[in-house]
Input
Amino acid sequence: MDKLPISIVVTTRNSEKTIGQCLESVKNNNPAEIILVDGNSNDDTLEIARRYTSLIFSDEGREYNYAQQLGAEKAANDYIAFVDSDIVLPEGTLAKLLDELKALDCATMAATVLPISSTTYWERTTDWNARLLRKRRGVGGLQATIVLRDVVMNHKLDSSLKGASDLDFTIRMKEAGLKQGVSSVFVYHHHRTSFTAFFRQRFRYGWVAARYVRKYGPFHARFWPPLVTAYWTGICIVKGKPNYIPYFVVDGFAQSCGMAKGFYQLALEFIKRK
Output
């Protein structure tokens, strides 16, 4: 079987628990190449990754967006698939996404992300939240997404955000008038399963949100955790899901703490530049 003309870009940092399953699923989708960009892992991530690819690079600790952009620049094909290290692709996923991207003349085509497990409160609520977000926004992120390589080269991922670039990238694609698609083809994701893991993730999101505020200005409600918590609390009440409200309260508190740290660090960076 001919290889798909797709370069897979996977970014990792201490991903030993999920990277083997991720890369096995990627390999079974028959891409032309698998590129892995690692963020100074100190566990067995790289040892596992070497079983699947020799195209391994380091982001030298320069964060997620830089790693994704580096992977895209190393790619040898016209299509790139960004795949998070905790994603599992069913067989045939990449071929279907590529066909849809071409048929609909899109610049990007994101898979629908489902939980690999829904046994905990945090997994179930994250899935419910993600489903509503996809329906409301009509665009996906970069967890499992095929993108034209030329688009990534012309609209580089912003490494100054130092974190998840999904929102920034989709905003800039929309501003550029590029069509973004969300497929009904699904992939599986390892959602955070515990309070501690969820809190740490959302704290990081808040830290990144401070940099979004610096870039786009303060007049975007989606960047401010208390406003987002209030919005989703209302949605929970309207949808008859009051048991999900604690999830959004924790989310808002964790992101607010992370944002406070983010603004503090931005202030220190500003002072040092002076």
